[in-house]
Amino acid sequence: MIFVAGVSPKTTVIDPTARLCPACGLARARLQRVDHYFSLFFIPVFRVKKGDVFLFCDRCNRPVNDRSGQLEAKREASPAACAVCGRELEDEHRFCPYCGQRR
After folding, report:
1. Fewer CB atoms near the end CB (10 Å): N or C, the chain?
2. What is the average pLDDT score of the chain?
């Protein structure tokens, strides 16, 4: 008798609402979580481990941590404002993420 079992990861989108990516400045980041499931004959049976929630940007194609102290310090250090809408911008943004105007 052959018995095929194992643990496999499964990525789940927690909130499909697009959020601003702190790396690229576009609204392409979504909340996701990677859970690990026990699989029997390649069919997920039950969840073994619940993963942490993180932001994943579709454009950057990588997870983005917007809760880190580095990004918060960087935001406080560069209070540049958009010339059209007046909202604060980060230094790495070429375009305003709110109105689309080029810097």
Report:
1. N
2. 80
